[in-house]
């Protein structure tokens, strides 16, 4: 049953939106199936962004729908504080099964933001449990996006997401970002230059002392800021430096996890294993909100088996909806579907076709960089001198009206289609974009 357009748009204060513009020019999505949305006025829109980087298996997939329906009728909700339900343990085992070796303890949340704040709190609790409670500093990275909780915006580095919200956490520092168009523009896959930027961590460590730093958190591939692929050797250097100084490394894989980069995780794809991995989005194919933090055994055990503690709650943290029964059902069905259709391998197999198609846009008006990895691409446009971001908004709107959903951050287009996209649909996406770019002022 497709919803009809409402008469009154005033009550809903929309997230991350230009509310005034939207309500004057509404764009409403009413239904979705596989690779397409249907708008409230009945137009089909090709989904070039898997919703918000999350519908990795495509929309309205029958096994997931069925699992949610059946679960709602069997056990809608079960408290998970001091109680459990079978699906939560099953899903935790399934998640552990696709994480890198050793990251087999799984804490459930309801979003990427909650996963990030959970991971940061686990890092702090870990050091306290080990008798090093002075390790409280957290290191993020410029241009990083780690959701919208106070922890996430503090370690994050997107200026607009922080400006209005006060000082945030204290004791936070940031690595430099890795965007280097002068040396890396139009890289296919990992850019060649920039591994040395990881060495800046040594300077931060020298400044504060390793024994004050709890964790470093980065997106292995930065998504929301406009697709920054890690330079060759960069993540390896970060891992080596954090390991050398005994600092925990957290990968925020809310976007890069669950197949987006052609493997279960970026950690697997790049061959670099952190201590904690944040997940969300693709975990349930976005059919029910859910996030998770995969935690290495030694971190978990240090907290849960801390010597000397009286028996009782080990970590005073959790959400009413942690391991929600519907989310667990959706998660298990989603991981089954990824496996039965081999979607992670499929994404990997499409990578060259994807890269060839996208890099074919080089030379079109305003295009100053194209970057890609897995089934992700960023197309950077030159900003209008008087109005940065306006060109991005214009192309977003014109593409939507032309039947293609893209995502823009400022003047950077980000593409991340469902992993079921066909080669024809890749061609269709790129043709429409080419047309749009030719007409863009
Ligand atoms: C890397 C990363 N971390 C965290 C988040 C926040 O996730 P959510 O919007 O589910 O809170 C996002 C969302 O895009 C993300 O890309």
Automatic annotation (TrEMBL):
Keywords: Aminotransferase, Pyridoxal phosphate, Transferase. It comes from Sandarakinorhabdus cyanobacteriorum. It comes from the Bacteria. This is Aspartate aminotransferase family protein. GO terms for biological process: biotin biosynthetic process. PROSITE patterns: AA_TRANSFER_CLASS_3. CDD domains: OAT_like. It holds the Pfam family Aminotran_3. Its EC number is 2.6.1.18. Its cofactor is pyridoxal 5'-phosphate. The lineage of its organism: Bacteria, Pseudomonadati, Pseudomonadota, Alphaproteobacteria, Sphingomonadales. GO terms for molecular function: adenosylmethionine-8-amino-7-oxononanoate transaminase activity; beta-alanine:pyruvate transaminase activity; pyridoxal phosphate binding. Belongs to the class-III pyridoxal-phosphate-dependent aminotransferase family.
